[in-house]
Structure formats: structure tokens, C-alpha cells
Amino acid sequence: MKISIINGPNLNMLGVREPDIYGDLTLSNIEENCQKIAQEFTIDMDFLQSNHEGELIELIHQAYHDNVSAIIINGAALTHTSIALLDALKATNLPIFEVHISNIHAREDFRQHSYISAIAEAVICGLGDEGYYAAMHAIIKKYK
After folding, report:
1. How many other β-carbons are positioned within 10 Å of the β-carbon of residue 52?
2. Is residue 72 within a helix (H) or strand (E), and if so which, with residue range?
3. pLDDT tens digits for 59-73?
4. C-alpha span between 9 and 118 (Å, rounded)
5. Is the pLDDT reported for residue 106 higher than 90?
6. Which one from 61, 80, 100, 105 is the annotated catalytic residue?
């Protein structure tokens, strides 16, 4: 089993960016914690981030070609704007688990709509970094 965890724009700034909303953990901290879960359950994991929409689409395509079992995606701001990201995820025909650190439904109006949610098997928001771990556990339980 292999899981690809794909992170969108500005998530590389976690720990610095609005800690009152996103907490003080860095993306590297979250990756380390996800890697511990992967090791515990003896699964492979990719943990990727890009600030560029086209590169994220390429990472999604690569996940398909790498025969991953599922994708966990935090599309960040592209969640609310990118039909291209949605189309790339749809093209993979893989289980998609959408994660957001903050509760997008309790934020600005423009953040309350997600294109990804329409195809996501699950949406986890508002749990901080725990959302990533919950998604991993759900995928492992369902697909391993």
C-alpha cells in the first residue's frame, strides 16, 4: 500500500503563517508524524508540497502512475479556485481524502466552497495536523 499526501500553496510556511489559525507545527513536523504512521503500518508514503498549480497537477498524475492506493490532499487556497486540480484528481479514479488544518466552513465566505469535496471520499477540516493522521488511519483501515 502507498499513500500520496499532496499539499498546496503556502503550506510550506506552516509554523510561521498565522499560527493562531494554523498552529505552530511546520509542514516538516507533520511529514515526520505521517512517516511514523506509515512505518507503524508498514506502508509507503509520499509527502509532497508545491506552490504551483501545474506542479500539483503533475504530482497527482504521478500518483496515478505510481499506483498509489489513495491520495490525501490539502489543496490550500487552490481548493476554492482550481477546477484543474479537481479534474486531475478525478482523472486518477483514486480514493481522495481532503484535509484542511482549519475549519474552512467557519472562515471567510470564499473559503467555504471546495471543488475537491465533490469527489472526496472524506473531508476532514478543523482538526489541525490531526486531520492528516485521521485520513491516514481511515485509508489504512479501509484499503489495507
Report:
1. 12
2. strand 70-74
3. 999 999 999 999 999
4. 21
5. no
6. 100
Q: Which residues lie below 8 Å from residue 91, measured CB to CB, with a gap of 6+?
A: 60, 61, 64
Q: Is 100 a catalytic residue?
A: yes
Q: Name 78's Cβ contacts closer than 8 Å, sequence gap at least 6.
A: 8, 9, 53, 56, 85
- Is residue 22 part of the annotated active site? The answer reads yes
Catalytic residue among 22, 115, 132, 133: 22
- Of 71, 70, 130, nearest in space to 100 by CA: 130
> Are 60 and 89 within 8 A, CB to CB?
yes
pTM above 0.85, yes or no: yes
